[in-house]
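Handout, section B. The chain below has 54 residues.
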Amino acid sequence: MDYEKMMKRLDRAEENIEFAGAEIIQSRGTMIGRCIGVTLGAVAALIMVSLLGW
């Protein structure tokens, strides 16, 4: 293989790796955001229950 073909293949591989990494990070961010949202919702509900005395 000549240099140009090899560099193109390496560039495609690098793009695929970056894409896969970004997908993994995005899914983790969604999972962490969901956990934070549930926790904050539970805390807000507990505060409302304690303030309103239900």
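Note. The two ends are 75 Å apart (CA to CA). Compare this with the example in section A.
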